[in-house]
């Protein structure tokens, strides 16, 4: 089985701060909208269309020109990758209708729309998710966040009587994180929330498509503005997970303009120090978590010491447990744990 993959695994913090040479498939140059090559007068094969568009993307400075044309044309031929298209489909002539579809989708890519939005879907771990702007496109490093949570939940499978485990995700976007956890853990129930109605709708749609809707409740809520409401809804949560907006506001200016044009600004900008949403999650965590329940956060590499210090100084009952590194060795994940509440027996 071929999976769609970004070959240059750049991450969001690098898109923001410009520390990475390699750019991901959603990372695009700033250019005015370019015109498409004319539709061919005669018939054309998929291989020829691949070549026309690869060269056109190159000429116009569209990043990852080869992969862009490959993913779009593979998608139109009913496959995920060009490698999984059979040779005959590549070498026979495309129908007029198919050729027009190739031109239409590749022209969208020419306007710098990320491939994931052009083909309206992408793979995240073992799921294929529906995607549309402006809902945040899940990044590869978030698969590592899911892996961390999964490993922990599999190691500590809930109270013996029920084996019930619950997860709360703040900022669910397309639903990638919660749905991945639900797919791998049949005993898990998940709650997810997002301030964006588009994200809430897309998460629900993806849950339905994947048949996971019975174990996922999605709320249209803002973790900062709706804290009171949240306190009435969530308790005894095993894992509080978030890939929040965590870019430093000053880095937003250095972002590729097309990311800002197509993706929700509020999914990226974490405020002056990138911690606006993170601080709120940490402050609320002890109220939501079960004893020894954990918080799992994806953060900027500059964040772990700041998160540790802020928690130690401001949050009672939450202990900074550890920092985890991503595949390229950068400190990207913070894990915190709720301390066990010791009930005073005289109080009962
Ligand atoms: C970086 S995206 C992550 C989306 C998804 N979890 C993923 O990894 O693909 C952050 C998400 O948090 C949401 N968000 C931002 N601020 C929020 C807030 N104050 N309350 C709830 N959700 C928020 C955004 O709408 C966005 O969907």
UniProtKB/TrEMBL annotation:
InterPro entries: DNA_methylase_N6_adenine_CS, HemK-like, N5-glutamine_MTase, PrmC_N, SAM-dependent_MTases_sf, Small_mtfrase_dom. Its EC number is 2.1.1.297. GO terms for cellular component: mitochondrion. Residues 48-119 form the Release factor glutamine methyltransferase N-terminal domain. Keywords: Methyltransferase, S-adenosyl-L-methionine, Transferase. Signal peptide: none annotated. It holds the Pfam family PrmC_N. It catalyses: L-glutaminyl-[peptide chain release factor] + S-adenosyl-L-methionine = N(5)-methyl-L-glutaminyl-[peptide chain release factor] + S-adenosyl-L-homocysteine + H(+). The keyword Transferase applies. Residues 163-247 form the Methyltransferase small domain. GO terms for molecular function: nucleic acid binding; peptide chain release factor N(5)-glutamine methyltransferase activity. Gene3D superfamilies: DNA helicase RuvA subunit, C-terminal domain, Vaccinia Virus protein VP39. This is peptide chain release factor N(5)-glutamine methyltransferase.
């Amino acid at each position: 089985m071929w999976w769609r993959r970004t070959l240059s695994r750049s991450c969001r913090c690098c898109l923001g701060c410009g520390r990475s040479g390699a750019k991901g498939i959603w990372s695009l140059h700033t250019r005015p909208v370019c015109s498409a090559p004319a539709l061919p007068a005669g018939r054309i094969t998929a291989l020829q269309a691949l070549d026309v568009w690869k060269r056109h993307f190159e000429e116009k400075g569209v990043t990852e020109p080869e992969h862009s044309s490959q993913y779009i044309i593979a998608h139109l031929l009913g496959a995920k990758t060009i490698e999984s298209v059979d040779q005959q489909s590549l070498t026979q002539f495309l129908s007029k209708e198919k050729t027009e579809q190739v031109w239409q989708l590749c022209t969208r890519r020419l306007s710098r729309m990320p491939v994931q939005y052009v083909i309206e879907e992408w793979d995240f771990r073992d799921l294929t998710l529906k995607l549309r702007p402006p809902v945040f496109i899940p990044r590869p490093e978030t698969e590592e966040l899911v892996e961390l949570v999964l490993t922990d939940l599999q190691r500590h499978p809930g109270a013996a009587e029920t084996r019930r485990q619950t997860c709360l995700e703040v900022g669910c976007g397309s639903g990638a994180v919660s749905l991945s956890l639900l797919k791998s853990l049949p005993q898990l129930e998940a709650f997810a929330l997002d301030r964006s109605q588009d994200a809430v709708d897309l998460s629900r749609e993806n849950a339905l498509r994947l048949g996971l809707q019975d174990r996922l409740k999605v709320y249209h809520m803002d973790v900062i503005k709706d804290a009171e409401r949240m306190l009435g809804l969530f308790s005894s949560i095993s894992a509080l997970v978030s890939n929040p907006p965590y870019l430093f506001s000053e880095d937003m200016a250095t972002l590729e303009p097309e990311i800002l044009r197509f993706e929700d600004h509020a999914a990226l900008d974490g405020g002056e120090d990138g911690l606006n949403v993170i601080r709120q999650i940490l402050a609320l965590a002890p109220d939501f978590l079960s004893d020894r329940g954990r918080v799992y956060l994806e953060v900027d590499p500059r964040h772990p010491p700041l998160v540790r210090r802020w928690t130690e100084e401001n949050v009672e009952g939450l202990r900074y447990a550890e920092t985890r590194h991503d595949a390229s060795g950068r400190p990207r994940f913070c894990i915190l744990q709720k301390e066990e509440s010791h009930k005073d027996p005289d109080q009962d």
